[in-house]
Specification:
By secondary structure, this protein is of the alpha+beta class. It has three domains: about 110 residues, DNA Polymerase III, subunit A, domain 2 (DNA Polymerase III, Chain A, domain 2, Roll), CATH 3.10.150; about 110 residues, DNA Polymerase III, subunit A, domain 2 (DNA Polymerase III, Chain A, domain 2); about 110 residues, DNA Polymerase III, Chain A, domain 2 (Roll). It is about 20% helix and about 30% strand. The protein is built from nine helices and 28 strands. The protein has a nine-stranded antiparallel sheet with strand order 13-10-11-12-25-24-23-17-21, with helices on one face. An eight-stranded antiparallel sheet has the order 5-2-3-4-16-15-14-9, with helices on one face. The chain has a seven-stranded mixed sheet with strand order 22-18-19-20-26-28-27. The longest helix has 30 residues. The termini are far apart.
Length: about 475
């Protein structure tokens, strides 16, 4: 009998899915071997470019079970509830556990253990790495291309001498530095989403090592081994990074402006095509982001952000700029409208290709302007230019198109109105709306009551008197 915790089964299956760059059905066909050995429990699975290994100290045993990864889906869970795995007969085993006081047992298929590839040899030593190393690997894997080209841009480059992690897809480049690797060579390994699993984030024992064929990364009780691409070539990406001193424009995106931009963007864009949008960065004294949806131009004004240097207007794919915000960059360097946008901090550099400068949107008088006021958590109110009341002409005239501004107000608390305040009209409109709703409610009740008692003369007379009192108030009521 082999004892395995349910959450380990769940995480192992999730790790396989993140390592196999294909639909989850393919990952579920990967054979898994579970063994009780002299050092405790060991579970592993191996494919051509990677291997996933899990070890857990325990008593010595001799049980061995092999099965497709899909069987883990039958027993996995978020709890630490132990599962007993027992071989029944050739090709069949049983899993038994207790779930919320209920004893459960299921049968699942097993395969011959020799059909599971043995794991690769492990390094003799693992060099300790900081916690941010996992995040760096995850972000590098997300930046790398999904398909190979002339260069191996579907790989992640580990630079031994400089301690850098590089990834690119030809449209963006991410360089992360500040690491100390136990090797001097430049090594290419497959990109993998496994390091983005939330369950691995709390691990405090992280290390890296290499053999002649693999780079192995230890995360607590887990080891992930990646095949080194010895024949692949990575482009000389660092030569594309310009010197920061040659930037002609610098843009600092205020965190509150970034939050406002994301919130306004999600309210106006829907569906998978939203990220294919082109975003114009109009960087001047009052910077704004501009985009066009179905012929309607929207300006998101960023009053807290700062632009220094030459005013410039450039265009970039929305998904590239969102990637920079997602990476929590706030300082941007612009060298030319047709050159890559550069974001930097102490340990990272991110380059994003821009679109042609001729594709940038110029300001329009009829644009919808979104302007934050006071607090980042706020609601939007439309404010249009006020015009004097004029008699309506006999012949209809097409109204002139004017800029519509959305002023964002605090989401909580009453409006503070005072004389000549431009927003008093909305407070009055809100009060009028409430009064109309109440009047409509009373009118509906009155009509229903009249239908019911229309045959009762005395009640009808009482109703008439009440209505007469409403339309002709007494002197006392007039005084009040």
């Amino acid at each position: 009998m082999i004892v395995l915790e349910r959450h380990v089964a769940q995480l192992f299956r999730a790790a396989l899915r993140r390592c196999v760059d294909a639909p989850s059905t393919r990952a579920d066909r990967v054979p898994v071997l579970l063994r009780d050995g002299k050092n405790g429990l060991m579970m592993h699975a191996r494919q051509e470019e990677f291997a996933v290994m899990y070890s857990q100290p325990g008593p010595e045993g001799k049980e061995v079970l092999a099965f497709p990864a899909s069987s883990l889906g039958l027993i996995e869970g978020k709890s630490q509830e132990p599962i007993e795995l027992v071989a029944l007969e050739p090709g069949k085993a049983a899993a038994r556990w207790v779930d919320k006081g209920v004893h459960l047992e299921i049968d699942f298929p097993v395969i011959e253990s020799d059909k599971v590839a043995i794991p690769p040899a492990l390094p003799k030593e693992f060099a300790p790495m900081p916690v941010r190393f996992l995040t760096a690997l995850h972000e590098a894997s997300r930046t790398a291309s999904q398909a190979p080209t002339k260069y191996s841009i579907h790989r992640v480059l580990l630079r031994g001498k400089t301690g850098e992690i590089l990834a690119t897809d030809t449209h963006q480049l991410l360089i992360q530095s500040g690491f100390k690797f136990p090797f001097q060579e430049d090594l290419l390994i497959p990109r993998s989403g496994v390091f983005g699993l939330p369950a691995l984030a709390p691990a405090n024992e992280i290390g890296i090592g290499r053999t002649d064929t693999h780079v192995a990364i230890r995360v607590g009780r887990w080891i992930f081994a990646f095949l080194i691409d010895a024949k692949g070539r990575f482009p000389d990406a660092t030569g594309l990074v310009p010197r920061t001193s040659s930037a002609t424009t610098r843009f600092r995106l205020d965190p509150e402006d970034a939050e406002f931009f994301m919130r306004m963007l999600t309210q106006r864009l829907r569906g998978p095509k939203a990220k294919d949008l082109a975003l114009t960065l109009d960087l001047n004294e009052t910077p704004c982001f501009r985009f066009d949806v179905k012929g309607r131009t929207t300006d998101i004004v960023l009053p807290r952000s700062q632009v220094t240097g030459k005013a410039i207007r450039l265009c970039i794919d929305l998904k590239r700029f969102l990637r920079a915000i997602e990476l929590q960059f706030s300082e941007f360097e612009i060298y030319d409208a047709d050159k890559p946008l550069v974001a930097r901090d102490d340990q990272r550099v991110y380059l994003a290709m821009t679109a042609l400068s001729k594709d940038a949107l110029a300001p329009r008088d009829d644009a919808l302007r979104l302007v934050p006021i006071d607090e980042p958590t706020s609601r939007a109110v439309a404010v249009r230019p006020t015009r004097p009341r004029v008699p309506q002409p006999l012949v209809p005239v097409e109204p002139s198109r004017a800029t519509e501004t959305i002023v964002v107000l605090p989401a909580h608390g009453p409006l503070q109105s005072h004389e000549h305040h431009p927003l008093d009209v909305f407070a009055e409109a809100e009060g009028l709306r409430s009064a109309v709703v109440k009047a409509a409610t009373h009118a509906g009740r009155l009509l229903q009551l009249l239908r019911t008692v229309c045959s009762q003369p005395n009640v009808m007379q009482t109703m008439r008197n009440s209505l007469h009192a409403l339309t002709h108030p007494s002197s006392e009521e007039q005084h009040r």
